[in-house]
Amino acid sequence: MKSDTSSLLVIVPAFNEEGAISGVIRSVREALPGVRVIVIDDGSWDDTARVAESGGADVFRLPHHLGLGGAVQTGYRFAFEHSYEHVVRVDGDGQHNPADIKKLLDAMQQGDYDMVSGSRFLVPNGYPTRTMRRFGSLLFSWILYPILGKSITDPTSGFVAVNRRALEAFSGSFPLEYPEIEALVVLKRKALRFSEVPTKMFPRRSGQSTINGWTAAYYMVRVLLGVFVNVIKYESRYHTGTRG
Amino acid sequence: MEQIRIVTIVFCLLLLFQIVRSVRREHIRVEYSMAWFGVAVLLLGLCLSKTALDWLSWAIGIYDSPLVLLVVAGVLFLFIFFRSSIQVSGLKDHNIVLAQKIGLLEWELKRQGLELAQLRERKSTKKRPDSLGV
Q: Is this complex's ipTM strictly greater than 0.85?
């Protein structure tokens, strides 16, 4: 990957992450000095936006909570409109290791992929994963295999790098809730290429996951339905420009 | 049968009254009230015309008039709810796009405001030596 960071944008979707966001911005800056970091504050009711601003990031404040997909797509739209070549999404909870961003970008360039995601399961890295999450990832990998035509070890990973082709696809059409898995199907539908690289992940720096207990069951059903719908999707609705 | 007919007629009249009231107070837009008007008028027509209800009973093969009324009402309401879901989905899509645009525009406005302030400050520091007569 070329060292020029002017064509690279790092987007950090954040919802009530005041405890972790400054650390995330700092780590990104340490890994890639000079890179532009934008935080999309998804209607937080804590001090996320102010902390992110004082950390030196550009902050887009959404007027109300849109959900992860809506926040991520805001960043993708901005990047597409401002002609960025590559975008890396790093979550605002501090689970991703920004030192691995270069790994994602190198893999994307070397393999001519449109999207590369970081996998915590490709090579065991000592990350403590809950049994439920591991089971969910295995189940989705198994379901996605015939759809994607390839094996994906960590389909729920939010640590992703995309190029301009994927950016164009996602700025027009991106799933709203739990977008990671559906995004893979969107890419496949648009005949774009994607891959995974092993990355290190940390436990959350603060806050807690929104997927717990009953929401985990909702998550499974919602994502399965989303995948099914994406497989049979009627493309022209997106071309009218009314859909987010 | 007579009892259910009277109850349905009263219900339809109340529904029609409520629709007209809501449209007048602009709680519901005319285009969204059309489906409810249609349902109320159709159900009222079936209750008032025994011939129409008998024909419908024969057509759908249910020879119990109250049950026919219930089925027709259920189907019509399901249709309205489904149509409402489509409309809500469309509104949500538009809402997402608008919220994203507001977020981006507010940031752009703030950035331009800061640039303008910096420009003014630079101009005023340039002018200062002249005003002192240096």
A: no
